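REQUEST FORM: STRUCTURE PREDICTION
Request ID: SP-0412
Submitted by: Lab K.M.
Chain count: 1
Length (residues): 149
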Amino acid sequence: MARIEFNQLPKGLYEKVFAVEQYVESSGLDVRLLELMRYRVSQINHCLYCLDMHFKLAKKFGETDLRLYSVSGWEEAPYYSEKERAVLHFAEKLTQLNSTVVSDEDFERLSDYFTQEEVAHLTLAVAQINTWNRLMDAFRFEPGNFKAD
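STATUS: Completed
RESULT:
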């Protein structure tokens, strides 16, 4: 059961957070890659609502079941590209700041695949999914009902 229902959110909260989401979506980053990253971060944060949403969205944008089911083991799996590995590694580091830091090498690894502007957008995208995970954890929106139309 939700602790705070969607219609009970303070006026403007959803709109402001969603505006950041729209900014990220318009950044030009590959949506399939973003969904893979969002799914992985939501696994780390144990956000069931976001896992449901981003699994469905990733599938909508062409992601395979195999890659989604095994993304927690991406380091050992042979079917993630080096670019995807760089993003997943970076996203994990940013998500787990309480136990690790983003090193210069982590940051530089992204520069093989992204411009500085894209790295900035990717960093915001990782921060944004962490924000959504925390909101959903606190509010306890009911998972399972998201439709990826």
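NOTES: The chain has one domain: 29-139.
Reviewed by: T.R.
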